[in-house]
Amino acid sequence: MKIWKRTVSVLLILILVAGGVYVGDKLTTRGVSQKKYVKFFAEKKDYDVVFYGSSHVLSGIQPMELWNNYGITGYNLGGHAASLGMSYWVLRQSLRYHKPKLAMFDIYDMYAHDQPYMDISFMHYSMDAYPMGVTKFMAVQDLLKGQSTAAKAELFFPFSVYHSRWDEVTKESAKASFDKGLFNSYCGSEIRYGVAVPNDIERVDPEITMEGSSGADSYIRDFVSTCRDAGVEVCFMRVPYPACVENQMAENRVMKLAEELGVRVIDIMQDDRQDGLLSSRVVNFDTDLVDANAHLNAVGAFKVTMYLGKLLKQYYGFTDKRQDPDYSNWNEDYANVYIPALTADLSLQTDFKTCLMFASYPEFETEMTVTKQYEPDEVCEKLYKLHGSRLKITEVQSIDSSSVQDRANFDLDGEAMAPGFLISEQDEPVVRMTVKLRDSGAVVADKLFCVNT
User: Fold this and answer.
1) pLDDT tens digits, residue range 186-222?
2) 393 plus 309 within the same structural domain
3) Domain of 359, in residue numbers
């Protein structure tokens, strides 16, 4: 009897400790990882395609646009600064929840560092949402091989590093910690805003490669074999970006390995230029990048997604599910979650070229009134073309600012005017941009831009 009581007491203590750690973990862990994964975990049906890779994937593929235009279900599991090793372990863990028909893996930066090197601060984004288990234990042991026990504990139990956040916990934050209604509105992707133009980059001949870093080939082979063992087709892709010479050489090596493994590569970097400079037939480096050396902006990602959707239907025979009642939740999420999030993000933009870029989404139509003082540069002219007939520009003598929705008054470089600034004759408005939803005509943004003199 005494042994039984002691056993029960020990079990109760263990349950209370585990419960306390769980609750503490929920209350103090920053929710970016949970927000990314909660919708992925909650979906009842398997996805057509899941995307893996680094931030190039995270900001380069838009699953909700893939759904709206092709009826293909997808989720973006790209991670910030995710190493090749991290992508492999994200694959392993995600397959416990869903086995998509296709896993797409971006080949960016596969040989840039010794694998599976990456900053532990970025690991939390990709790992925290997964519960502790055998696979996560193996992942942490591998990703932090040779690191301290404290570092590993940080990923095993995020509570151990976030415990100092107790003073930040409020009634609202506590409620949000357990609220599964707080999720990534873009099916895992993160849209980036801005317009940057890179310098010209020499295109490297596909036959020129570089040596692989330690362990990289093994991770690539394991990624492929894991997919095939699970009955999941695998495809590599190359999201376009201004790749330096070294990165091009590394990606050429991956192309060779993919050929050896019998893996299809969808190379969105391909182009028809004859001048030996790097570019892409799908995106325009003058309008579609958010920074000058790496990532696509929102419109660049939209273009890539549209191009990819056509090929996915052609190569893998995905059926259009938009009219299928079993997938009505996707149409509801597009209308009630995605579009409101997209419009909210647009309304927050301040930079003129960013607003012009973002408003070119097919969901919007734009009216601009401009004065003679407004002088668009070459990039602006190219951004105009993204809108097609959905942009109307009218020249006026002056702009009445009394009815403008956004009175923050930004200049053409996106810098906010000083607090309390009043438009004067010296700082007169030269552009008024009004963006509306095409379907409803509802005003999304009404912004005034001035020349700050």
Assistant:
1) 999 999 988 999 999 999 998 998 877 667 888 999 9
2) no
3) 349-450
Q: Which two tokens stand for residue 55?
A: 């931030």
CB 182 within 8 A of CB 33: no
Q: How far is CA 151 from the centre of its chain?
A: 27
290, with CB counted inside 10 A (0-12, 13-18, 19+), is: buried
Query: Per-residue DSSP letters for 379-408?
Result: HHHHHHHHHGGGEEEEE-S----TT-SEEE
My answer on whether 339 and 409 are in the same domain is no
Which residues does residue 234 pair with via DSSP β-bridges, in sequence order? Answer: 103
- Peptide bond connecting 116 to the previous residue in cis, omega within 30 degrees of 0: yes
* Domain shared by 37 and 184, yes or no: yes
pLDDT one-digit tens code per residue, 1-55 = 556 656 655 565 555 444 444 444 444 455 678 889 999 999 999 999 999 999 9
- State whether 265 and 383 are in the same domain: no
Tokens of 342: 């997209």
User: In angstroms, rounded to a whole number, what is the distance separating the alpha carbons of residues 233 and 95?
Assistant: 13
Locate 49 and state its tokens. 């395609």
Give residue for tokens 């006026």: 396
Last residue of a domain, one of 324, 343, 362: 343
Token pair recorded at residue 194: 């801005």
C-alpha torsion 243→248→253→256, nearest 10: 90
Residue 334 DSSP class: I
* Residue 451 CB neighbours (<10 A): 17
